[in-house]
Specification:
The complex is a heterodimer of chains A (339) and B (121).
Chain A (H helix, E strand, L loop, with lengths): L1 H36 L15 H11 L10 H17 L10 E3 L2 E3 L9 H22 L3 H32 L4 H10 L3 H4 L1 H14 L11 H4 L9 H26 L15 H27 L7 H29 L1
Antiparallel strand pairs in A: 1-2
Helix pairs in contact in A: 1-10, 1-11, 2-10, 3-4, 3-10, 4-5, 5-8, 5-12, 8-10, 8-12, 10-11
Chain B lengths: L7 H24 L28 H25 L1 H28 L8
Helix pairs in contact in B: 2-3
Classes of the chains: A mainly alpha (339), B mainly alpha (121).
Amino acid sequence: MTLALIAKIILVVAIFVLTLAVAAYSTYLERKVAAFLQDRLGPDRAGPWGLLQPLADGVKMFTKEEFIPAASEKFLFILGPGLFILTALMTSAVIPWGPALVIAGEVIALQVADIDIGVLYVLGVVSVGVYGIMIGGWASNNKYSLLGAVRASSQMISYELAMGISVITIVMITGSLSLNEIVGQQAQGTWNVLKQPLGFLIFLVCAFAETNRAPFDLPECETELVGGYHTEYSSMKLGLFLFAEYMNMFISSAMIATLYFGGWHFPYMDKLGLGPNTLAFLGFTVFFLKIVFFIFFYMWVRWTLPRFRYDQLMHLGWKVLIPLALLNMLATGAFSLLF
Amino acid sequence: MNTPSSYLPIIIQLLVALGFVITTLVASHLIGPKRKGNKKDEAFECGIDGVGNARVPFSIKYFMTAILFVLFDVEVVFFYPYAVNFKEMGWHGFAAVSIFVGFFLIGFAYVYKRGALEWDK
C-alpha cells in the first residue's frame, strides 16, 4: 500500500511537471510554427534558437504590476484565473499515460486514478472551467470583459452538448466509461477513429471550440474586444489564463489520442516481445508523439483558417453538430446491433 | 471495481494543483510593483472616459442558450447509463432509446421552429 501510494505521489508530481513544461513550450512552439508558416524567424534571442523564451516570459509575468480595477469584485477577480487553471490541471488525472510498469514485482499503472467514470470525470471537470472565465469576466466590471465572458461561456456550453453525444458512441462500442478500458480495447482491436470517423470529426471540432482556439477564438477576438474576458488582467493572473489555455490544448490533444487514436498503443506492439518496462517507455513515447502532433495541428489550423462570425459559430454548433452527433449515435447503435 | 480509495490520487492531485495556484498568485502579488491612482484604477476603455457600470442588460440570446443547454445536457446525461449497457440491452434497449431520442428531437424541432437558435435576426 505504501509503495503504491509513493508511486502515485511521484506520478502526480511527474505529470504536473510535464503539463507545465509542455504548456510552457507550446507557447514557444506556437510562435515558431507561426513564424515558419508566415516565413519569419520567430523568437531567437533568449538562448540558442530562442529556447529560453518561455522562462523569460514567466519571469516577465511575475515581475509585472498586479492591477485590480477599483470597481471590480476583488475576491472573484482573483478567483477567476485560479479556478480556470485549477480545472486545467485536474483533467490529466484519469488519462492513461502508458502500459503498466513492473517494479520489484509490483504492477504500477501509469495513470493517476483508474476510475470507472473516467469519461464523465473529464467532461465534468472541463465544464467547471466555464465558471473560471465567467467569474473572471464578470468580476472585472468592464464591458469588454463581460461580453467576452458571455461569448466564451455560451460557446463552450453549446459545443459541450455535441461533444458529449459524440463521446457516447465511443462508450457504446467500448461498454465502459473507464479511459483505461477504452485504450485497452483499442489495443486488442482497431483504433476507434476507424470505427467512428464522423464521431472523431465532431469531437475534434468541439475540442477546438471548447479550448477557445482559432477558428473559434471569438471570446478573445483582439480586434473587437481587446482581449475579451481577460482585458483587465495583468501580471501572473493574465499569465494563468493564457497558460491554462495551452494546458487545455495539451489535455484535449491527449483526450483525442486516447479516445480515437489508441492512446499509448501502436501497431504490432505485442509482437515485439519486449519486457513490460521497455513497452511502457515506448508506449509513453508514442502517446507523447501523438499529443505533440495534435498540438501542432491546433497551431497549424490557427494560422491557416480565419475566425468564424458569432452567428456562424452558433449555427454550426446547434444546427449542424448536435443533429449530426445524434444521428451518428443512432446509426452506430443500429449498425453494431445488426453486425 | 472502484472503492472510495480509488479516488484518493485525485485528492493528491487537487492538493498539488491548489498549492501551485496559490503559490503563483501570492508570489506575483509580492514580487510586482504597486502604484495606485484614481484615474489608473478605472476600468479599461479605449482612451475615453468610461460610461456607467458594466453590469448592464445584454442580449437575451445568451440567456436562451444557457437555458437550452441545461435542458438538453440533462437529456444527454441520460444517454450515458444506456451507452455503458448498450450491448447487453440489445434491440429492446435500442428501441427504448430511439423513442427517447425522438422526444429529444421533438423538443429540438420546437426550439428550432420558434427561432431560439437564430442569431442573425
